[in-house]
């Protein structure tokens, strides 16, 4: 958490620099679309960081879903593929109601190959979708959190138990933006970010993998009924 503000500042400055270059070259290019999404993600991270306290856990979940949608769309737009470039053109028009939807299965297969495990992007998006919309599951979840602070029960709850998973999720979100926007994997369009301008982000990302990942592995199963998940 100490290094997070520095990592976000360095990352956002480089995203702005390269995004400005791409925008000037072509306002509707695939690269420009990627940087527009990356800058939206950097903006959302600023809000997410302000919600890391017990009374705003519910609000954090809603913003986390918005972050997930944009990040997964950024991952979708990174593919060096004519079909994706057509999707980008439709997205820029802003008239297709489904143009913003990421290709979760395509992204998940790619991430799983890199990580050698199960990223569960689709399931995670589905869980947070159920919590972000006014479903009965979301209402019950919000009610439980509200009752906690209205009755004073939260005073007796362990702070680390309440907030450690959210803090870990926040740090992991920053790390995933670093990978999605600054890495140039084979099969992705090159965005050309200058890592020398961001001397702290690699140290930050490795630290997150060491500290936050084990916490998320322990707490990734949110107790929602099967019928709450969305495709």
Describe the structure.
It is a single chain. Helix content is 68%, strand content 0%. The chain has 231 residues and is an all-alpha fold. It is globular and about 55 Å long. The model has no long low-confidence stretch (mean pLDDT 86).
What structural class do the secondary elements suggest? Answer: mainly alpha
**Helix and strand sequence:** HHHHHHHHH
The percentage of residues in β strands lies in under 5%
The total of helices stands at 9
Regions with pLDDT < 50 over 5+ consecutive residues? none
**Overall mean pLDDT:** 86
Proportion in helices: 55-70%
Radius of gyration (CA) equals 18 Å
Number of domains: 1
Largest pleated sheet: none
Shape estimate = globular
- Secondary structure tally: strands: 0
Distance linking N and C termini: 33 Å
Brief account:
By secondary structure, the protein is mainly α. It has one domain (4-228). The protein is built from nine helices and no strands.
Keywords:
231 residues, mainly alpha, 9 helices, globular
